[in-house]
Structure formats: C-alpha cells, structure tokens
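re the bet — no i am not wrong, look at it urself. input seq straight from the record:
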Amino acid sequence: MKRALPMAVLLWCLAGVPGTPAAAQDVPAAAYTPASGDASVDRHLADINDYASRYPAAFADEMARYYAVPRAYVEAMQQQPDWTAGDIYMACALAQIVGQPCRAVVREWSRDHEGGWKAVAGRLQAEPGSAQYRRLRSALAATYRRWDRPAPVAEK
C-alpha cells in the first residue's frame, strides 16, 4: 500500500487532472498578435517569445550586443507583464532602424498601440513594405542565424 499511493498520485498528475501542474501546461497561452502588417514578421515575433521563455539570458544578450540596448533595460522589460520578448525585440530593432533609442519606441508603443506594430511603425515612417521594414526583416534573419534557429514557417 505504501508504494501504491505515490504511484497513484504520479499517474493522476501525468493524466492531466484539472488543477495539477501537468494540466496547466496543456492550456494554450493567449494568442500573441503583434499586428506588424507582415505575416512573416508576426511569426518571427511569436517565435521569439518562445525562444526567450526558454533562453531569457541569450535573448537579453542578443538585444544588448546587436541592438545597443543595455542588458539591464532588457531584463527589466522582460519582467513587465505588458511586454513580451517579441514586443521588446520589435521595439528595439525598429528603433535601431529608424535611428532612435529603444526607449523612445517603447514610449511610443506604450502611449498608443491600438493598431499594433504596423501603426507604431507607420508613425515612425517605417511602414510595412518600406526600405526600413525590409531592413527589419533582414535583422530578424540575422538574429535567427546567430541563434542557429530555423525561421518559423506559415502553418498550412
């Protein structure tokens, strides 16, 4: 009987009974919709959220090293409940492309992001399809090469 009880508890947890940690992992997170105006960029930003949740230090290093954002600032942003890694990446990459500090784009997003990143990028004169936006896509590709991570592909 002493062995049966722990085994029963283990099986109960593995079965995903509501209220157990195993069941909590099965619940999908709220869908992340950056609304960048570019489906490929949206997929990358969502994937960056996944990457940063597993490798937060590597994500912070990337932002500090290649996007000139103080590591402490990135780490502080990662702790903010209203900011995802994808949004942090977009703010700082977009800032670099338009020649502004990341904090300025963070303030712009925080002030008004009703139209998603597409609207914010438009206010910064870097709307989808522009030369600046193409540079953003190149920056994403370079980040994925450094991470040795395959680019996310569209679902069929």
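see?? The CA atoms of residues 19 and 99 lie 48 Å apart. told u. also The radius of gyration is 19 Å. so pay up
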